[in-house]
Amino acid sequence: MLVGSALAFAQGVYAPWPALAALLGALLIQVGTNFANDYFDAAKGIDSEARKGPIRVVQSGLISPATLRNGIWLVFGLAFLVGVYLVAVAGWPIVVIGVLSLLCALAYSGGPYPLASLGLGDVFVFVFSGWWRWGEPITCRR
After folding, report:
1. Which long-range contacts (CB under 8 A, 24 or more apart) does 16-21 make?
2. What is the pTM assigned to this prediction?
3. Domain limits of the chain?
């Protein structure tokens, strides 16, 4: 977001509201992805008490699966609304980016063939989150 905004600014075409909306949409999709990962990993039994790392809210009992599922719908719904605004100002390519982002967010650890379990998780993290996340530890799922 920063690089795109900086390039737009350098070319004299920076628009603050669309830039802010794109940042908000990206953050909402990231939050929704994290929620979905927590939800699906708990539902599939991937997260257990032996898990190392940050606390998972469903696995630890802090939030019920139904509450987190509702949170996923809420956050992705808000991202959709932001996307509607972005489509209005930037056109149909935003639809493609948004739909792919939401589908991959759910497919990362959900569905019958989760991307993370197929060894494709890091590829999709790189594509959707960028090289700056590439240095994070690789996690394998079974």
Report:
1. 17/89, 18/85, 18/86, 18/89, 18/90, 21/82, 21/85, 21/86, 21/89
2. 0.81
3. 16-133
